[in-house]
Design goal:
Blueprint: H1 2-10, H2 34-43, H3 51-62, E1 67-70, H4 77-91, E2 99-104, H5 108-119, E3 124-129, H6 135-143, E4 151-156, H7 158-166, E5 177-180, H8 183-188, H9 192-205, E6 216-221, H10 227-236
Parallel strand pairs: 1-6, 2-4, 2-5, 3-4, 5-6
The protein binds adenosine-5'-diphosphate (ADP) and magnesium ion.
């Protein structure tokens, strides 16, 4: 235990409500399947997880609980949630090709960046829907280049997603994991009301999945400063780690 607290201090890690130790290496707890491990270490050359990844991986995967991750810009928050999403969805393959993961982001550029970064792993279909594309085009894009043997993860900006939900282009019936990325910027850009709308639609339309997974919500932010970000976390997350 003393050893771990030193390690956490050295890596500038503080955890709340977590009863498992962060990982030090990708292989700890045997969480990561071989193909993802190869991609991380050989293709990307990432020798070890960043501190936020050290915490997010074991906590998101070993606890079926909401998670709030705070780490500065450039600290690897994208993979801190993408890797757990991939592993969680791979572990319980579905029979439908519906969206089981949804990543909400403040900007179209970020959505497209995450789509590219995530698709390089080749384990899930990631598709982004953003403003600037017509709904017809989005509808077409969503069925393009899809490997039907892989799980489907959606990345979206709030406004465009609401349009797609209203038009029935997207449904979130089978959603199991929801990410609010750059939550601080979402507040700065005034997305709170739209997040509420999406959250309510999810609560209303979600059906129990065949494996009875709860909806797990993950929120990531560079800062927790400001009352609005704390309020958002409090209203959207249930007893988060
Ligand atoms: P954030 O979302 O926290 O601002 P990103 O997820 O965009 O940060 O990551 C910043 C950079 O760090 C990216 O280029 C990413 O590929 C790289 N990165 C992510 N994880 C690792 C890692 N474990 N080791 C080295 N670099 C990493
Ligand atoms: Mg980020």
């Amino acid at each position: 235990k003393r050893d771990w607290s030193l390690f956490k201090r050295e890596n500038n890690i503080t955890t709340y409500k977590s009863d498992i130790d962060p990982i030090r290496n990708w292989s700890d707890y045997n969480l990561i399947p071989r193909d993802i491990l190869t991609r991380l270490t050989i293709d990307l050359g990432y020798g070890k997880p960043t501190p936020i990844q050290m915490c997010s991986l074991p906590n998101i995967l070993m606890k079926n609980q909401d998670f709030l991750g705070v780490a500065k810009t450039g600290s690897g928050k994208t993979l801190a949630y993408l890797i757990p999403i991939f592993i969680k969805l791979l572990k319980t393959p579905s029979v439908h090709n519906k969206f089981r993961g949804l990543i909400l982001v403040p900007t179209r550029e970020l959505a497209q960046q995450i789509e590219v970064e995530g698709n390089k792993f080749g384990v899930c279909n990631l598709k982004s829907i953003v403003g600037g594309h017509s709904l017809e085009q989005i509808n077409r894009d969503l069925s393009l280049d899809i490997d039907h043997n892989k799980e489907f993860v959606l990345i979206a900006t709030p406004g465009r997603l609401i349009d797609c939900l209203d038009m029935g282009i997207v449904d979130l019936k089978y959603l199991e994991i929801l990410v609010l990325d750059e939550a601080d910027r979402m507040i700065d850009l005034g997305f709170e009301e739209q997040l509420d709308t999406i959250y309510n639609i999810i609560q209303k339309t979600r059906v129990a999945t065949y494996n009875n997974n709860n909806l797990q919500i993950l929120m990531f932010t560079a800062t927790l400063n400001g009352t609005n970000i704390s309020k958002l976390a409090e209203s959207k997350l249930k007893n988060p780690i």
